[in-house]
Amino acid sequence: MHPQLIIFDFDGTLADSAPWFAGELNRVARRFRFREVEEREVELLRRMDTRSILRFLRVPSWKLPFIARHMRRRVAEDAASIPLFPGTPDLLHRLASRGVPLAIASSNSEANIRRILGGNSQHIRHYECGASLFGKARRFRRLIRRAGLDPYSVLCVGDELRDIEAAREAGARSVAVSWGYAARDLLASGEPDLLIDAMDELLARLEH
Fold first, then answer.
1. Residue range 160-196, pLDDT digits in tens
2. Which candidate in 9, 11, 159, 163 is catalytic?
3. Which of 63, 66, 137, 149 is the most buried (most CB within 10 A)?
4. pTM
């Protein structure tokens, strides 16, 4: 079935923000008093789901909204230094030119995403932003209702295990991409409908 709507995650899927977040993490840890991460532990975190990461960092759940607000503010300050992945502009342009409605669901803010996308934001029809770490399924359902679609006709593209789980909870199909935050073997364990390793492969799959 050809998708009637494609919902993209942003950070780690369209934007190459992982290096920026890695550089910011220990400063945030000191500010909010959770465990700092050594360089050798970064790859270990890529093999953990979100709840395991929070336990590893010893972040209590009550701090999450404050950390998220701070991170969105820091992204706004540094947006000019956060690039898109090289294939992102072509991907969005070619999909939009085929008439496929595109959306973004993210914990980042819409203002930050539009600034990082620049002119590419013209290809995005819907935004659902500011989602909590575990609130993405609700955002997916809202986008699907707004479009008036059967959930199974929707593809959700993301780079984390929670993206796969949220798509399944919303009744949509999931596409996991391995160039973002989570390691490929962790994504595979979530059994997405598709697991993609390169941007051009993603474009080929979505076009054909």
1. 999 999 999 999 999 999 999 999 999 999 999 999 9
2. 9
3. 137
4. 0.94
